[in-house]
Specification:
Chain lengths: 714, 714
């Protein structure tokens, strides 16, 4: 790719970004878009926007930037929880790393690269210059200038490791502080017991007798999990019907209250739809009632067991309970809102098969994804595209077309395909048998991360067939060399990718909510079922964290190869900082709270990036005929791994569980709290399946005269 | 190797075995050898042998076999502990497996192998037949007879897995039963706390305040570990002097009581040695006393903390204590007799360096060991030996010489070199930082096992340079093929190895105690320091378990390749059964009790053997041109691994720690035990460093008037 193609891509993206930002700042001020841009405030009743047209309202402004900038970390913590703080720290960590990297890269490495003569590019025609002239490829073979790069690798690694340590330390201390400051929460007092042995009695009796025998003074209560998938289906249908009924009743137009009884309401005699709905709802209530009464017999060998203190819950989690290790297995319970109920109905065998299926599916998706990757590769190499489709020659010879095709299109296509993969990964994680939404999210996050790294980074870098790629793994000795050849060549593609996927994607889809905007506009025009409930979204960690981490991987690996990528990355992180703060404050409501458990993923991924950089550096120093530098780089990945193993020992346990010291202190503090008895009362019913008490009805302010729904709110 | 060479080897070994057995049965009856053959009974005061010469005494007999055969497993358990029972179960497990394998192998596989024509060996001259005619190599390529071998692989794997499951189940239930029946033991109530943070106070105060704060009702006592290596050295010297003094005093010959004061007692004026010793001892006592008084300042940040119940000790082990994961780390304490004290003096960095050094040393030893392996390989291939040393041609042409050289010598040499490696492995394990003798023994056991597997099995099987061997790891696809070619060729060597190392070695060195016998005879003739203490040995698990497991690996891998090995193995296991029972009853005293923790090593090693067999089978079916059988074998290792992962989940946790159920039950039982208060009193001082109370003196019946030694016995 030549410089002008890159500039085209940057130009298109900057224009798009500015357009979206302008539109956003206008639309944000209008009440009719509040459900898109301020859903959180709307749901909390804080949105104060009118819908009148005054002049100020239609002018773009940067007030939202100021608003997003202002809150301190403490305010963010109080507002959105520790996970949001950790999420923002991922971005500030990236900012810190790449601020340093950009200074070194642009001020030191770039001039050295540009001064090289290896590629024999003449200095006069800057726009048509290949981007390679700014990369390490341009440095002469065997030149002493490569020692500058060598030093940069060492210094950069040291700085990143230092920052990683500081950050891990800070977040783990935050985690402890958050725990100390938190109110008593049901999940802190509860363990999930699985594989309750079948002793002839009901599971509920087994649990009761087991825990009263062995934990007589501290056992509080339990709730056995029941197979409620059928009940859930029934309630879901009743829910929908109820919403429709409410909608019908609120309609002023009596015309709409009547419909035809036949197929799709198209023929048959005219009936009062409200009457029909009410009758149906009554039927459904009966069904729900009978289903509920049979539930006692549908116990699953799993139960949530609550204790009087956190410490005792921790004891029950950490120590094996039963003699048989496969029975009475315990694990920390997730928060009641965080529990993923469908899982419990699955048997052990089913879960095992699902796990296997998920692995196969992941492999299959990865292989399938090579097709778009090949297309993208074809687009970046115009010659190849011409040889595939000779009839395109005419169009491709137009300068602007070729620049758009090589600079903008590839990243856009790749980005689109990755968006398709995201929901698939969530579904895969959810059928893997996790018991909480947060675990599913974390698992999907890791899946997407490695999928992105493998399919976007490696598949793009290593040209050739898929088989060739697999063979590399079997030849560990050649990996540095192969990467050293392949990685620098893709620098320009990844710069374009940062601009397209980082800048425009973040602005358009994250801030501007392009897809929901189009969707809601379509619905409004077509007059869809507007009585459907308006739901406040929660931040999709599984798509955002991998993206941020992937950019950090790009930045780290290309730091010595092609420092030109660094300013663009820095731009991305600055944009991201403002946009995500705005989103956390105005749009997203936390669905769960893991207490910063996403950070270890970030740490591991950064260590991986560093080691990948070292391997590439070893390869490239070898290729550039400075074997001494190549050999002297070898200790660096080893030192990084030693550092990582120390961090794992020093910090990771704090993200797994809380220590006895904290638990006992917090328990003692609770003893003096007068509200603890009322908390215990709540705790007893906290882990009832939501299907047992239909929460959704109680949230509505309008009520329907239904004895079922009222009785269910207990 | 031809059949007659094998028979020569078997002949030599059988003759040696009979000789040793005869001598053993004679010498065992004599009082003067009781310290070799009945040390346990001697130490327990049960040895009832006179030293008179009556006729019966000099006749060989098989009474000892009857004596060793009789005791039931319960008696063995009561007599030698669970570890001894598990040790014997390793042998009976081998017996069961190879009884089945021998029936299938000899009755089904061997005839099929012999009937093949692949090797074109004529049927007339049986003694000069190569052993290969009994192996799978003789089956015709592509023959349908190979499906018999294929079925045998599946059936054998199923039977071994079934036996493994039964055995794991049995031993884990034994382990729980042993726990229930055991008396209260200090280590059950105690945890080892390490990395006590330095808070300005002494470590002892820190521990006291930490545990009284967080475990006020259950914390009992603690003893901080102190740096006692210097004190230990002083006491050791005092010990030696004391022994000498006792010896001098008991000497009747007054001549010996006097010696000269000069160098080595060769010149100078005559002095009373007893007086001199007593003076020296007094000096040493002073030194010990001053050293002990300074000990308070030499605290190590580690302490043994005892609790009132087992359950609370388990809580302290399983739950992280301090906020910082690197501080207040806890682990189960070993038994006081099992503690390996020297380790505690080492700093963290020193231990880390030691660990690194151990890895390097292991690699170095492995490489160094290739030299004897190459020598051994040269001996089995006479042609190669002749080409190396042409002058040997004359001698080698003698039939008997060549048969001894190819049949007997190689295994003997290999066996000798392995004996040299054994103590090295123990030393390496002991500097790795384990805190108990049992852990050192287990670690050494695993080291020796893998060393044997790699150096005796793989190094012998894969001819060629060491580099070639490393390259195989990098080409996983070719492993089955390479093993399929190489392994069958070494069948005859391993049969000879079983006979030499299994039969003769076990009989001579284990039962006959050849080395100690020669040593003690030498000492007796030369008149050595006979006042040195007589120590009852404990069973060297690290040398015996790897040997037994290695033979089981040979049996499993050669089961389909060369079933001729199986009768010899069966013979080994039968011999081993009687011999080890005899040794456990009469010779060895258990030094520690792990509660059967060696079994998981046995399980893992057997699974490894099975998978190795599968890989070889895949290779050999491929080579024999039955690709379908080769492909159909592939699921077998996968199924075996699934079985293993189930076993790890089902049984392994029981070998790591005891469950809450057992601990609480046992604790409750203790509450009603009247002796528990006196046990608590003992527990408080149980974990004092032996250097603080010199135990060895108190064991002697004779006393010397020394205030120090008396005061130290508190």
């Amino acid at each position: 790719m030549i410089l002008s193609a890159l500039l085209t891509s940057v130009g298109i993206n900057v224009a798009l970004c500015l357009l979206f930002l302008t539109l956003f700042s206008i639309l944000k001020k209008r009440q009719s878009y509040a459900h898109l841009y301020l859903p959180r405030l709307v749901s909390e009743g804080k949105s104060q926007l009118g819908d009148g047209y005054n002049f100020e309202r239609i002018l773009p402004s940067v007030n939202w930037v100021k608003r997003a900038w202002q809150p301190s970390e403490e305010e963010l913590l109080a507002n959105s929880g520790l996970d949001a703080v950790v999420f923002m720290r991922i971005i500030t960590f990236g900012l810190k790393v790449f601020r340093f990297a950009a200074i070194i890269g642009i001020c030191v490495l770039l001039p050295f690269n540009y001064m090289g003569n290896q590629l024999n590019i003449d200095f006069t025609d800057l726009p048509n210059k290949s981007l390679e002239s700014f990369s390490i490829s341009n440095v002469d073979d065997g030149s002493n200038r490569l020692w500058v790069h060598f030093c940069a690798v060492y210094v950069f690694t040291a700085v990143v490791c230092y920052l990683l340590y500081i950050e891990y330390d800070y977040i783990s201390s935050k985690r402890i502080a958050y725990f100390y400051s938190s109110k008593p929460q049901p999940h802190q007092f509860t363990v999930l017991v699985r594989s309750i042995p079948n002793s002839g009695r009901s599971f509920s009796e087994s649990v009761e007798s087991f825990f009263t025998e062995y934990y007589p003074s501290t056992y509080l209560s339990h709730s056995v999990v029941r197979r409620t998938s059928k009940l859930k289906g029934l309630i879901n249908n009743a829910d929908k019907l109820y919403s429709r009924l409410v909608h019908l009743k609120s309609e002023n137009d009596t015309q709409q209250r009547f419909g035809r009884a036949g197929f799709m309401g198209l023929y048959g005699k005219r009936v009062d739809l409200v009457d029909r709905c009410e009758k149906k709802l009554e039927e459904m209530e009966d069904n729900v009632r009978t289903e509920r009464s049979t539930l006692a017999g549908k116990e699953v060998p799993a139960a949530f067991v609550s204790f009087k203190t956190r410490f005792n819950a921790a004891i029950a989690t950490h120590i094996r309970q039963g003699v048989k290790p496969t029975e009475w297995t315990t694990e920390p319970a997730p928060d009641p809102q965080d529990v993923y109920w469908p899982f419990f109905s699955a048997s052990f065998l089913k879960r095992w098969m699902c796990n296997l299926a998920v692995i196969v599916a992941c492999v299959f998706i990865t292989i399938l994804f090579l097709i778009p990757v090949l297309v993208v590769q074809g687009l970046t190499n115009l010659e190849q595209l011409e040889s595939w489709f000779p009839f395109l020659k005419g169009i491709l010879s137009l300068k602007i077309v070729s620049q758009v095709i090589t600079g903008y299109l590839p990243s856009l296509i790749l980005e689109m395909f990755i968006s398709l993969v995201l929901p698939v990964m969530v579904v895969l994680s959810s059928i893997q048998g996790y018991i909480s939404l947060s675990q599913i999210e974390k698992s999907a996050c890791i899946k997407v991360l490695w999928f992105t790294v493998w399919n976007v980074f490696f598949a793009n870098v290593l040209s050739g067939s898929a088989l060739y790629r697999v063979n590399i793994i079997l030849e560990p000795k050649r990996i540095p060399e192969i990467l050293g050849v392949a990685v620098p060549g893709q620098a320009s593609f990844f710069i374009a990718y940062v601009v397209t996927s980082g800048w425009t994607k973040t602005v358009s889809s994250e801030l501007f909510q392009l897809k929901p905007l189009i969707w809601s506009s379509l619905k409004r025009t077509l007059g869809g079922k507007s009585y459907e409930e308006f739901e406040v979204p929660s931040i999709p960690y599984h798509s955002e964290i991998p993206r941020i981490l992937f950019f950090s991987l790009l930045g780290v690996t290309y730091f010595i190869l092609s420092p030109l990528i660094l300013p663009f990355l820095l731009g991305y992180y600055c944009l991201g900082y403002i946009i995500y703060r705005n989103q956390l404050l105005d749009v997203y409501v936390p669905k769960f709270e893991t207490g910063g458990k996403f950070w270890p993923v970030v740490h591991d991924s950064t260590i991986f990036s560093l080691i990948l950089m070292h391997i590439i550096a070893i390869g490239i120093f070898g290729l550039k005929k400075v074997p001494l530098a190549s050999s002297l780089t070898i200790p660096l990945p080893i030192l990084t791994l030693v550092f990582n193993s120390y961090c794992r020992r020093r910090f990771l346990p704090m993200f797994k569980s809380y220590p006895a010291e904290c638990l006992i202190k917090k328990d003692r503090y609770d003893q003096s709290d007068p509200t603890i008895t009322s908390f215990y009362d709540k705790l007893v019913t906290a882990y009832q399946d939501p299907a047992m008490n239909s929460v959704r009805y109680s949230e509505n302010s309008e009520r329907i005269n239904s004895p079922l729904l009222h009785s269910a709110e207990i």
